[in-house]
Amino acid sequence: MDTGSHGLAGALLDRSLADRPSGRAALWIGFLAAMLPDLDFVFLGDRLDYMQNHRGWSHSFVYLPALALGVALVAKLFFRRARFRDLWIFAAAGIVSHILFDWMTSFGTMFLTPLSRTRFSLDWVFIVDPFFTGISLVTLVVAAVRPAAGRKAAAVGSALLFLYILFCGAVHARALETWKRIDHVPAGRTSAVMPQLLSPFRWLGLSDHGGELHACFFDIGPFARAVPEPRVPEKLGEALRLLPRFYPPAERARIKTFVQAPDSPLLAKARALPDVRVYLAFARFPLETVTAEADGTTAVTFEDLRFLPFFIGPWARNRQGQYTREPFVYRVRLDASGRVLERGFVLAGRSR
Ligand SMILES: [Zn+2]
User: Fold this and answer.
1) For a Cys staple, 29 with which of 88, 90, 138, 339, CB 3.0–4.6 Å?
2) How do strand 350-351 and strand 340-347 relate by DSSP bridges?
3) Which residues surround ligand 1, an ion (CB under 5 A)?
């Protein structure tokens, strides 16, 4: 989840654990401790480092007790009369909430670092979710306005938050079942559905059929408002308004097929590069494309379809003047002998 929403949810959960007089300490420690894990970016260098190590040690249950201890020690300076044990519990609960709420998203959380670098993701909730944030915010406001009933309000808010998450989990299960049915995913093949912006009913279905990847945007809710040929948004502001048009009901959804490049020495060379290995370890549905350029060089592109935008193209203008977006696309350019000429993330159609 986004860091601010983590803070609100952590404050809410912690406030439900404590009545006055420690309610204030619970609220503040929950708020700050639940945002703390995302500060790991301070220790991360470039985008590749972020891809490799974000949501690592700071999001790990193994380091959690020590991290909570650090928070409790600092908190003791501000809340001198509070019991130290309570401060540690508030801090630990805030950090636990962060790990669990990141696990629900599809980015991947390495919560067993350093025992394992496995990335866990439930794919239930999109990283930015107004319902999740709204439930936390509204109940915190109620708790602030009526401090005498603060703990009760926070408990009700926490229960609503968990019900919402369970609801998203149930919709996810249905979406996955729907996707496997409409895409005829063979048994044993990897498939997943990714939550999408602004609605728990909108999904991106992905599957690996060996030599090709399938992707499809669809809506399993009662409000699907797709049109056959949706217009590609030209401005960022337009994107949110046009977004629902790209998600038809599953029966009418168009499945896109992306063909994987066949194995070749240049592709193998690119795959073996340390930066590309980092990329491939992070990616779940990597599409590999090999393109022969006019100047005799070869471009090998890696694109995790998990981040496929609902319309094709990034927030930079393409040649037609439309806004396009290519998140997490990595490209290596090699000459005929396999020497690497250029490598990096693609931004606005060019390597960086
Ligand atoms: Zn996080």
Assistant:
1) 90
2) antiparallel
3) 37-38, 102
